[in-house]
């Protein structure tokens, strides 16, 4: 092909279509337009018909971010350059995005409400006026996914790099990726099912005709092999992501209070338990990512204090990994704020609920307080084996951050971390059964009752040693 060819000439197109499915709750807020409705702090983004949707810009941003981590140059080839010419420097040409992603309307989506509360990092108690709530699109919603990539003359010399990036994106779409807000707290995970990829080479008349008249599409159009989801790791991690997937049993009971359920009961004039275990739209008991991340952050601070770091130094280290605390956010300038690299996922818990009625005692006399009868509905494990699988870890992890994640896993495994409410009466403790740790292309597997092999013990100890050095021990 001539080197003098117009770089803007279209050489071909690639189309990708399938059904996008939410594997976790989704939060894409509507911003200032939601001020008219004051019943929630954040409302989900809707179209003019009032139906929740995922903007193509959100999809493009999430996919671009993933490609940039491994192949920054390929990200510019596919998604274009960012900023103005002055941002990029004199003499640097901009590049138009080759990818076009359509908005995805989530018809039939079920809306839910999640709430949260800010906790004091020292006492573990709630911060006054720290209660908030927000709308979400519950997991299970579906929409039609369509993307189109236009290949031009400027891409011709980068064919190999683009192909590798597209293969990486294909696997990511199938295995799962995250979009929207609170993605580091288990929100926004989704994947594309039933994916079909069509490649059109415009140097071939058959492909041009198939592009112009899709209803008369012929078999001549290239359709690459699409692997099944079970053929791919789920999810796909980048090389420097330190990720833990661990199975646990419940030691006793667990409750993470559903405040919205209590509000609905009160508004309806019904008398029900004072606290119920939180559920998702499918009726399954869950540990929300927001609850798990808050618990692990508090424990991380405890670990750093135990290693000799004072409060300020511990907050600085945690800020590098988990982002600034709410108190720090108020003091930082916009340019100094950092996004959390510590991620967790929402977890489904298998268990049975049992109502418990309790009383409040007068701590001076030891007698009961009149009219202080209350009840809660925690859950207990049903049978033996796994009750919950937790996913957590650090993106682009340094050695000491990997060590901190290992100590968090150890404390969860041994039942030293309580999750949820009513910790003072022994709720929320877990016991580890099995864990897979992924980092830099390697996987270490830990199993309850089995002694670590020498190689695994040495590797994991190196990460903990790196944490000791960072803490100044």
Question: What would your notes on this structure say?
Answer:
The chain is α+β, with helices and mostly antiparallel strands. The protein is 27% helix and 29% strand. It has helices spanning 56-70, 72-79, 85-88, 159-175, 205-212, 259-267, 289-306, 311-322, 326-331, 399-413, 454-470; strands at residues 10-22, 53-54, 99-101, 104-105, 111-119, 126-137, 142-152, 177-178, 185-186, 189-201, 242-250, 253-254, 275-276, 285-287, 342-345, 347-349, 352-353, 356-361, 368-377, 379-380, 388-394, 430-439, 442-447. A hairpin with a 2-residue loop joins strand 22 and strand 23 (442-447).
Task: Describe the strand arrangement of the main beta sheet, using strand numbers.
Answer: 9-15-21-11-22-23
Q: Counting H and I runs of at least 4 residues, what is the number of helices?
A: 11
- The Cα radius of gyration reads 25 Å
Poorly predicted regions? 265-269
Mean pLDDT: 82
The beta-strand count equals: 23
**General shape:** globular
C-alpha termini separation: 62 Å
Please describe the biggest sheet, giving its number of strands, its sense, and whether it closes into a barrel: 6 strands, mixed
Helix content: 25-40%
Q: How large a portion of the residues is in β-strands, by DSSP E? A: 25-35%
Question: Helix/strand-derived class?
Answer: alpha+beta
